[in-house]
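Hi! If you just cloned this repository, the fastest way to understand the data is to look at a raw example. We've pasted two of them here, unedited. The first protein comes first, obviously.
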Amino acid sequence: MLTALAVIGLAVSLDLLIGEPPTAAHPVAWFGRLVGALDRDWSATERGQRLAGVGIAALAPLVPAAVAGGAVLAATAVHPLAGGVVAAVVLFLTISIRSLLELTRTVVAATDGDLADARTQVRGLVGRDASTLSAAELRSAAVESAAENLADGLVATVLPFAVLAPVSLPAAAAIAAWVKGVNTLDSMLGYPSKPVGTASARLDDLVMFLPARVAAIAIAIAAADPLSLARARAWAQVPPSPNSGWPMATLACALAIRLEKPGVYTLNPDAALPTLADGERGVSLVGRAAGVSIVIAAGFVVFVSTGLGLDSSPLVEVFLT
């Protein structure tokens, strides 16, 4: 149990201290190159493309999972401490909170006078056309993305890692890398215009079902407003995604603001779009919700360890001997 908690703590600390590694050195970017090579015409028919996409969704995420699990297994064979450190690095590479909050904060601040810069910066958060968005709509886009990426960029990988880490660090690293692979596939291929990505999008919907709702719970707890989660039910299914609406709608209700993607969805429509102060509060709230998510993950570690009667901690014993 203590080993798992130490590994998660180290991974989160690395994210807070370093942020995301440079793109050229980031394994997620390397996997993205593989996905880019798979994004091609495998068949002359749409049905054939969808069938090829099933194979891609089934096999491609196994590549980062095998690499991550194998790396931790090999390091553990050398020394238990090395295995713990490598597992922490793997988890660190699958999460992104510091960079998310910094970019969101930058966009929100830029809406106070420099809309051109805000429109440029927001491209790192959302894919929508920002050229005509007002300051309030830019703030809405930024905090929507922060809420959604709380699930994608933290909860989705740290929760399964926390469940498996007390049992097997290589398996925990593998599942975190696999989930990140699924998310990457969806972000690159999961568009209606790409039949080859249909299976990847459906798999991502399945994988993100629980993390999106845990992220919403974390936001409600961080806001000290548990009823915001109940109020969010009215709009959680409005966005096209079956999952992203939960953290976004909960954030909208907790802050008493309207979040809107023009022409696509409106969450908490009776409220006003976020002011500058609302945007700043949104960034702070997502940051606190990230902390709550880590506590929830730690709770999973304790629950699994207690349930399985796992009292020994090889990594801690290393420090004590």
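Ok, and the second one:
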Amino acid sequence: MTWLGALLPVKDGVAVFAALDQAAKTAQAAGDQRTRGQVMADTLVDRLTGRETGAKPKTEVKIVMTADSLTNNADQPAMVEGYGPVPSAWARDALNDAEVFIRRLLTDPTGQLIAMESRSRKAPDGLAEFIATRDGAICRTNGCDAPIRNIDHIKRHTEGGNTSAENLQGLCERCNQAKESLGWQARPEPDGSITTITPTGHNYTSPPPETWRPAPPPLSPAERKLRRVLLEHTLAA
């Protein structure tokens, strides 16, 4: 479930509420068993998405999930951008509920998004969107939490860096300009981390975002018992 709100001029806000309230009264008078709030919420969705006229909503949904979860062979949660984790079964049902332009971004079992590559210097729109999603829409520079404004090479294109997911990062405007200053270097690491070398020779490593990493499997009864024994032993010591 999620909350939806809007800051409106008084006359518009009152008019919207009155229209939804009237729809609830009409439905309940006709014998609808839903509560007043349920009817109002359903009416809001129906009118905004076009379901009231029988048309399915045409929406773009960016869902990140493992290939196994998509094909119903696994039950790892999916991630809906802008919302968070959702059950994979819910994600599969949601895709069948609308005319959806799907941007499926599949991960391997460790949670790393599958790579994409381009021959051009500038990342194509699809690849740029892939990088922004992979990096969680936040600048990859250590300690920076500004939103991504640029998709740029880690190893410079002029130095042989290719335009691929492994050699691209999302950066804010400030960090993207700073990395072009004299003495700054960066390199991608095999695990998806990015190491930045400053003009003073200091190294800073930005680990890959864990946005899409699946939750660890639950502990077995034996593992829970062992953890309890270890905890009791530690407290006794």
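That's it. A detail worth noticing about the second one: The longest strand covers residues 58-66.
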